[in-house]
Amino acid sequence: MVVAYWIVAGLLAVFYLYSGGIKVVRSQEQLQPMMAWAGTAIPMAGVRAIGVVEVAGALGLILPPLTGIAPSLAVWAAGGLALVQVLAALFHLSRGERGDLWLNAVLAVVALATLVLATRR
User: Fold this and answer.
1) Which phi-psi region, left, alpha or beta, contains residue 96 (left: φ > 0; alpha: ψ -120 to 50)?
2) Concatenated DSSP letters for the chain?
3) CA 30, CA 97: separation in Å to the nearest integer?
4) CB of 74 within 8 A of CB of 9?
5) Residue 33's CB: how many other CB atoms inside 10 A?
């Protein structure tokens, strides 16, 4: 189970470090081609906050179990990332963006799998 956790959590963390990182550092103009809602439907401060939450979740999946300091935080990080995807799916549904829902569903399932694996460590 430990190996499975590190594989799944590592992949999820890499995705969220990238996804959250670009939300934090890129301008509205740079984000617009990928995320039409960035800066329009959600102000840039909100986009940056989402990015910070995603980066914090990614770090929460890796650092606590790696250091042995409060490893149960990985469970909360995985649950938080699953919640982010549920909220993202609701947001996309409200905008009629059904094409993005598959990614939200996959990421939510992977985050929930990570949560289960984190509880069995």
Assistant:
1) left
2) -HHHHHHHHHHHHHHHHHHHHHHHHS-HHHHTTT-TTBTTTB-HHHHHHHHHHHHHHHHHHHHHHHH-SSTTHHHHHHHHHHHHHHHHHHHHHHTT-GGGHHHHHHHHHHHHHHHHHHHT-
3) 20
4) yes
5) 8
Q: What are phi and psi of 17, to 5 degrees?
A: -65, -40
Q: Which pair of structure tokens corresponds to residue 36?
A: 């039409």
What pTM, to 2 d.p., does this model score? 0.93
Q: How many domains does the chain have?
A: 1
Domain containing residue 35: 2-119
> Residue 26 and residue 51: Cα distance in Å, rounded?
10
For residue 72, what are its two tokens?
Answer: 């149960």
Q: Of the given ranges (33-37, 73-77, 78-82, 87-91), which has the lowest mean pLDDT?
A: 33-37
What is the spatial distance between Cα 17 and Cα 54, in angstroms, rounded to a whole number? Answer: 7
The answer to whether the beta carbons of residues 6 and 63 sit under 8 Å apart is no
